[in-house]
């Protein structure tokens, strides 16, 4: 089921006016920031359909910026997020795109700094709940609401087992897991939603496992 | 975990507990939290709702100036006149509109189930409170009962205007409020389901056509409509009126209608009231662009 908590329905507490366009957008921005692991220096944000047509009036722009700055949906600074981003040297460009998309509230974020870059597609599915549907070209279904670990790895024997073994050792329960690869034996992405936030020491242990390239986490 | 209203009612009846209790127990199980944790998290939402209503009754104006001040007007009318539809009804209307005025003014609200429909549940709650004198616990339970029904809609249909039109948004919100009023007034779980069904039935086909694409016009007044219908349906259910079409089938109908709606009537701000001469003019005035259709 898409919604598993009563607080997905009664909540979130947020700064108005639209749970899909404002709170959801903030959560997509925050997911991108978390996955990037630090504050980006620049962001190019493509908006589609309803997001593209109504973002100015709904504050989708400042909400996405707020998320990139790490704000929660009810942060009172949300409305000033665009100015705060400018002050902090985060350069954001919004692009209204009329390409066809599966969901009316879709945003594609490309964020980065001098050395790294990350691309993410997020959809806002209602009531402030979001899903991340694509990361760096990999299709996935990830709710921004649960803690998760994202692991770029090589598509080799044992890569998945070495990760799940570490999780089992630390008694971390897997709620949802997906593995995607671009082609046999090439770059692959493991997405693991877990019940509790994962400590950095556990991530470090995973980084040292076989065939693992890069690890990011989403905290909830 | 319950998936349908029929299952929700069945659990409540079999175990002889309230709908709100079914929701509380499920939340404790799914999130592995204690009763106190789940309860206090919901109580915080109640505090936000109460504060938003208080703020609205001081008078708010949205950034665009399109909405605001109507909640206050209704309260003043109630003081000086005898409302034709009764004080409780107009109080709910005022508080539902007020919550959404705060939302449009980019104030802090609790999405129930969305921000655009955030007025119905608190608006009715703080109006019926004056007549039913609930305890604080019963007020928090009102939100769990609303949430239980919203949970079924969200998982079987949709709760956003962009996905299913305003029937999914204010329709769901008003229907959720109906079910909660019934429980607070001492009705049975089945009566909650009937009230929910009757409100949603009257909201079927409701389009999402925000003027200039904003959650203001017609959203604020539709929260007034959703709240008043919530009270009427709750009274009907408490009187023993039942829904001929079972609740889950009404939700199914709402889903299919939403799927059949063209995108121009689903929050794009291109059709319906947004595409009236005044709607187009307001969009041009606010954004300097002509309507897309």
UniProtKB/TrEMBL annotation, chain A:
Signal peptide: none annotated. Belongs to the iron-sulfur dependent L-serine dehydratase family. This is L-serine deaminase. The gene is sdaAB. CDD domains: ACT_LSD. Pathway: Carbohydrate biosynthesis; gluconeogenesis. Its cofactor is [4Fe-4S] cluster. PANTHER family: L-SERINE DEHYDRATASE (PTHR30182), L-SERINE DEHYDRATASE, BETA CHAIN-RELATED (PTHR30182:SF12).
Automatic annotation (TrEMBL), chain B:
One of its GO terms (molecular function) is L-serine ammonia-lyase activity. The keyword Aminoacyl-tRNA synthetase does not apply. NCBIfam families: sda_alpha (TIGR00718). Residues 15-274 form the Serine dehydratase-like alpha subunit domain. The lineage of its organism: Bacteria, Bacillati, Bacillota, Bacilli, Bacillales. This is L-serine dehydratase. Pfam families: SDH_alpha (PF03313). It comes from Halobacillus shinanisalinarum. It catalyses: L-serine = pyruvate + NH4(+).
């Amino acid at each position: 089921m898409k919604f598993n908590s009563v607080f997905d329905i009664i909540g979130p507490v947020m700064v108005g006016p639209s749970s899909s366009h404002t709170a959801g957008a903030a959560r997509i921005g925050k997911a991108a920031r978390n996955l990037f692991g630090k504050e980006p220096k620049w962001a190019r944000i493509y908006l589609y359909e309803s997001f593209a047509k109504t973002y100015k009036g709904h504050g989708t722009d400042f909400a996405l910026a707020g998320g990139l700055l790490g704000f929660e949906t009810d942060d009172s600074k949300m409305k000033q997020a665009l100015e705060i981003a400018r002050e902090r040297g985060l350069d954001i460009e919004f692009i209204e795109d009329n390409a066809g998309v599966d969901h009316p509230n879709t945003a594609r974020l490309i964020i980065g700094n001098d050395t790294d870059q990350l691309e993410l597609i997020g959809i806002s599915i209602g009531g402030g709940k979001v899903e991340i549907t694509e990361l760096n070209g990999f299709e996935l279904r990830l709710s921004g609401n649960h803690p998760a670990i994202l692991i770029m790895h090589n598509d080799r024997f044992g890569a998945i087992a070495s990760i799940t073994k570490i999780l089992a050792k630390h008694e971390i329960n897997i709620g949802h897991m997906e593995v995607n690869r671009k082609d046999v034996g090439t770059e692959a992405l493991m997405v693991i939603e877990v019940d509790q936030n994962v400590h950095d020491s556990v991530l470090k242990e995973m980084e040292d496992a076989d065939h693992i390239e890069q690890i990011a986490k989403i905290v909830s | 975990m319950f998936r349908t209203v029929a299952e929700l009612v069945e659990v409540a009846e079999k175990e002889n507990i309230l709908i709100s209790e079914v929701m509380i127990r499920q939340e404790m199980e799914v999130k592995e939290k204690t009763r106190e944790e789940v309860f206090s998290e919901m109580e915080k939402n109640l505090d936000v709702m109460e504060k938003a209503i208080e703020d609205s009754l001081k008078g708010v104006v949205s950034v665009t100036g399109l909405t605001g001040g109507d909640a206050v007007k209704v309260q003043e009318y109630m003081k000086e006149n005898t409302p034709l539809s009764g004080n409780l009804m107009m109080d709910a209307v005022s508080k539902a509109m007020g919550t959404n005025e705060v939302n449009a003014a980019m104030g802090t609200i609790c999405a129930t189930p969305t921000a655009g429909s955030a007025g119905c549940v608190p608006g009715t709650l703080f109006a019926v409170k004056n007549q039913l004198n609930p305890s604080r616990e019963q007020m928090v339970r009102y939100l769990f009962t609303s949430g239980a029904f919203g949970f079924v809609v969200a998982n079987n249909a949709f709760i956003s205007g962009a996905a299913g039109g305003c029937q999914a948004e204010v329709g769901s919100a008003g229907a959720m409020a109906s079910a909660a009023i019934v429980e607070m007034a001492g009705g049975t779980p089945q009566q909650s389901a009937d009230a929910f069904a009757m409100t949603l039935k009257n909201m079927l086909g409701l389009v999402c056509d925000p003027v200039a694409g904003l959650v203001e016009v017609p959203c604020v007044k539709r929260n007034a409509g959703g709240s008043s219908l919530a009270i009427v349906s709750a009274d009907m259910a408490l009187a023993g009126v039942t829904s001929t079409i079972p609740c889950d089938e009404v939700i199914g109908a709402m889903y299919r209608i939403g799927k059949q709606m063209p995108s121009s009537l689903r929050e794009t701000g291109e059709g319906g009231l947004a595409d009236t001469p005044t709607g187009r003019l307001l969009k041009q005035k606010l954004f300097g662009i002509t309507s897309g259709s």
